[in-house]
Amino acid sequence: MAAAFGLAAEEGSLIAHHFDRGIPWESLLDGTPLPATFAAELRARRSASDGQGVYVALALSNVARDDIPDGLDGAARPVSLAGAGPSTPEVQRALTAWIDLLVAELDPDFLNVGVEIDLVAASDPAAAGDWLELYRRLYRHATATYPDVTVFASFQAELGDPAVLPQLVDATDLIAVSTYPYLGGDLSTPPPDYLDRFFAPGLPVAIAETGFPAGVAATPEGEVASSPRAQDDYLEWLLGQACARDLAFLVWFLPTDIDIGAWGYSPEAAATATVFATNGLYGLNGDPRPAARRWTEARETGCSVD
User: Fold this and answer.
1) Interval 55-79: pLDDT, tens
2) Per the domain annotation, does 179 fall within a domain?
3) How far from 215 is each of 13, 227, 258, CA to CA, in Å?
4) Number of Cα atoms under 13 Å in the Cβ half of residue 57
5) 288 Cβ partners below 8 Å, 6+ apart?
6) For residue 4, with 0-12 CB atoms within 10 Å meaning exposed, 13-18 middle and 19 or more buried, which class applies?
7) 204 class by beta-carbon count within 10 Å (0-12 exposed, 13-18 middle, 19+ buried)
8) Domains held by the chain: number
9) For a designed S-S bond to 123, which of 50, 66, 201, 298 qualifies (C-beta 3.0 to 4.6 A apart)?
10) Cα(186)–Cα(282) distance, rounded to whole angstroms?
């Protein structure tokens, strides 16, 4: 994590803190101390953010986007939450406290309180209305409590329910997009209109998370074998979109490849990591890929003005 934060500080102007590995339920509901390792992690994240714009994203669901969050880093949920869902008062209370904790610790400029909310609704359609109401309550709390922070949800371009975005345009300060075009098994560069639907409401648009493999990646359509050239082609297209459409910000996920074997993932987390494992602008050996050089050039020169 330290290496990734170091690269983010060197190669970007915005550092993203993405929390999508469960929440510390007992600490949030009962006020018990945070796990010591997580408290230390938050301090390290705050230190790594010095001099950067700060973006904090928190998932209101589990990684599969079909249930409430799991316990932090594989811990069990409290027994009292058996059968709980998005309309359960304790869930809203815990997630509200989660927002307050992360804002206090990381002092964000941008705050995503509904990571891939349209994918959550698509994955749990029977409770879609409850999920959207939970998000709205969290949004209202965050905007009222932290008026200087830009608060929003993110929307998943490939797998989310397109009907959700129009329902939430009055409850988001900007439209943040999560996009991984290769999830459909297609490694070609997206067409010019690929992101058009996110601009239709007329709000500012950002890329909250994106990436493209430089090697093998798992997808819902099966395994794909990409290349550094294909990754670079995608980033070239994306930077063109960012400049032409004046995106609020753009987050590449991840700075470096994931070493699944060495990083101690659980089997479930390892399966998720295989989707993103070769998305790094830098390989596991630290060598920059062509896309890394393109990113650096874009950061240094900015958008050209005709």
Assistant:
1) 999 999 999 999 999 999 989 999 9
2) no
3) 27, 5, 12
4) 24
5) 281, 282, 296
6) middle
7) middle
8) 2
9) 66
10) 22
In a domain, 71, yes or no: yes
169 and 201 belong to one structural domain: no
Among 107, 109, 111, 113, smallest CA distance to 47 is for 107
Q: Is residue 306 part of a domain?
A: no
Nearest to 137 by CA among 119, 117, 157: 117
In a domain, 262, yes or no: yes
Q: Please tell me the predicted confidence (pLDDT) of residue 272.
A: 86
Q: Convert 89-100 to b/e letters by CB count within 10 Å (16 or more is b).
A: eebbebbbbbbe
Where the chain has pLDDT below 50, the residues are none
pLDDT at 7: 61
Residue with tokens 């601009």: 199
- Is the separation of the CB atoms in 241 and 285 below 8 Å? no
Which DSSP state fits 282? B
Q: What is the pLDDT of residue 13?
A: 87
- For residue 119, the one-letter residue type is L
Joined tokens for residue 261: 């074997």
Range of the domain at 269: 197-298
Sheet strands (E) in 211-255: 216-217, 224-225, 250-252
Torsion over CA: 181, 186, 187, 193 (sign): negative
Give which of 99, 3, 108, 106 is closest to 58, Cα–Cα. Answer: 99
Q: What is the DSSP string of 146-176?
A: -TTSEEEEEEETTTS-TTHHHHHGGG-SSEE
Report if pTM > 0.85.
yes
Residue 169: HSE in the Cβ half-sphere, 13 Å Cα cutoff: 13
